[in-house]
Fold this sequence. Notes:
The protein is mainly beta and 122 residues long. The chain has no helices and 11 strands.
Amino acid sequence: VQLQASGGGLVQAGGSLRLSCAASGRTFSSYAVGWFRQAPGKERQFVAAINYSGRSTYYADSVKGRFTISRNSVENTVYLQMNSLEPEDTAVYYCAARGYSLSYYPYDYNYWGQGTLVTVSS
Length: 122
């Protein structure tokens, strides 16, 4: 499966962005999808994940209550709605896919998108 992440940009603190992860190549509905981020000089960090059906989600404590992950099976797309953005959210955001169940470990994911840059100014 090929993944294309988009929706990043520059936003002021307190603002919102919606990231999209569009899939092609295989039936996306059998894959769990995770969002990860990587700031300069830091390790890749788990942000949120959703299982294949969309009924189960998981969030990092740092984004809980501010970010929402969802999926649209018809559009073959997973979204990450990011509200109340903080400068600490600045990073390249990646989406990744694996079979069925969600995980918060990057090494569990088989397919990765190219990343989209989110910059939050103070």
